[in-house]
Amino acid sequence: MARVKLVNIVKRYGRIIAVDHVNLDVRDGEFFALLGPSGCGKTTTLRIIAGLEAPDEGEIYIDDKLVNDVHPKDRDVAMVFQNYALYPHMTVFDNIAFPLRARRKQLGLTEEDIRKIVVSTAEFLGIAEHLHKYPSQLSGGQQQRVALARALVRKPKVWLLDEPLSNLDAKLRVAMRTELKKIQMKLGITTIYVTHDQVEAMSMADRIAVMNAGRVLQIGSPNELYYKPSDTFVATFIGSPPMNLIPCTLVEKTPIEYTVPAELSGGILGSGKVRTPYMLECPGFALPVESSMAGKIRESGAGEVYLGIRPEHITMSLKKPGELAVLEGVVEVVENLGSELIATIRVGNELVKTRVVGDERVTPGSSVFLALDARRILVFDKKTGKLII
Ligand SMILES: Nc1ncnc2c1ncn2[C@@H]1O[C@H](COP(=O)(O)OP(=O)(O)OP(=O)(O)O)[C@@H](O)[C@H]1O
Ligand SMILES: [Mg+2]
Predict the structure, then answer these.
(1) Over the stretch 39-72, which tens digit does the pLDDT of each residue have?
(2) CB contact at 8 A, 306 and 379
(3) Measured between alpha carbons, how far is residue 216 from residues 4, 13, 83, 101, 212 in Å?
(4) In whole angstroms, how large is the CA radius of gyration of the chain?
(5) Which of 48, 122, 313, 366 has the fewest CB neighbours in a 10 Å radius?
(6) Nearest residue (CA) to ligand 1, atom 27
(7) How far apart are CA 325 and CA 303, in angstroms?
(8) Starting at the edge strand that comes first in sequence, how are the strands of the sheet with 207-212 ordered?
(9) Same CATH fold assignment for domains 4-237 and 244-381
(10) Which tens digit of pLDDT belongs to each residue from 163-195?
């Protein structure tokens, strides 16, 4: 098993910076995801770790050993590609045996040793009955397992997976997700998993690095990324529907006084009895902001901000629920996702999405109230996108 560390990795293709000063520290046995939109540099980063691509700058360490000049074969890593890259003219057995046969002498293996390893790996992945078949005779999911088996026979220190499930249909993809995670946990193998699918990353990974335009924007556990996104890109890339971002302006007015109920305490409204001259003016509504919270916004120099709130932290109702952090709007669209409804509500000039819970009957055109869970409100600098609160 192994730790993988990237220090200031840069990779350019002509004028494109595919990987822009990337730093990662993947722990031993960790399931680590590289998540980001198409073209953000995920595959290039993975290929650099595998040694299939040389970085222009920076260092790659596997277990504290600098491997920049180590040949891919000697890095003890195994990569699984999106398109499986199985040899079509070889049986499943021969495909899985290939990495062992290629290095049989160095590994000191007899053909019987190889057979045993291939069979046990195939059994582990549930494809033992297909060993005599050719890849074209297998389903997509079975081919995927063959590719996984081929990457595992050499017991690599690090498993590199590049969108390994993207060719599977939606149902199989979900099933394989669970299975892959189980395999990884059973083997305890350090795994770096590339995907553009945030649900995949969120459901499988111990930690995730969110990438955009060659850069790593944030590294954290799924919960950290979800509840404390470092900027508006991460906030909207993770979660579905994404976090609502409402443009607002911090203003100073005649002070007002209010009492914050316990369930809203501790956020931008403050706690207990509050007196403050600060308001966030947003399209169609305004929210008071407790002075120390307003101070943080002013310190950052950002009067223009985005108020961020996740759809599940907004409660929609037909009757006005309270006084603080309540907006009024009109329902525009209601989407039925089976397990839940997503309502899009117009508030001022902005559209806000919320999950509908309980059996509130809402139809387009209804006037509704939206109560924001003030403890969950985030504030981002509108210019830089960075999280302030
Ligand atoms: N061999 C190459 N020659 C020139 N440009 C390349 C090469 N490989 C990658 N790039 C460019 O580098 C950038 C990053 O590509 P990369 O394949 O790493 O993205 P990715 O995050 O894996 O995207 P996807 O989700 O679409 O697979 C892209 O702009 C791509 O066009
Ligand atoms: Mg890619």
Answers:
(1) 999 999 999 999 999 999 999 999 999 999 999 9
(2) yes
(3) 16, 18, 25, 38, 7
(4) 26
(5) 366
(6) 38
(7) 19
(8) 77-80, 158-162, 190-195, 31-35, 207-212, 215-220
(9) no
(10) 988 888 888 888 889 988 999 999 899 999 999
Q: Where are the beta strands (DSSP E) in 289-377?
A: 304-309, 314-317, 326-336, 341-347, 350-356, 367-372
Q: How many whole angstroms separate alpha carbon 285 and alpha carbon 248?
A: 10
Statement: 244-381 belongs to CATH 2.40.160.20: no
Q: Which residue type occupies 159?
A: W
Give the residue, out of 16, 20, 192, with the most ligand 1 atoms within 8 A of its beta carbon, to mutate for a pocket test: 16
The pTM for the full model equals 0.93
Backbone φ and ψ for 217, nearest 5 degrees, come out as -90, -35
Reported CATH class of domain 4-237? alpha beta
Q: What is the pLDDT of residues 145-156, one digit of tens each?
A: 999 999 999 889
Which of 334, 342, 338, 335 lies closest to 363, judged by CA?
334
Q: Which residues line ligand 1 (CB under 6 A)?
A: 13, 16, 18, 36, 38-44, 196
Per-residue pLDDT tens over the stretch 338-371: 888 899 999 999 999 999 876 667 889 999 999 9
Q: Which numbered atom of ligand 1 lies nearest the CA of 196?
A: 25
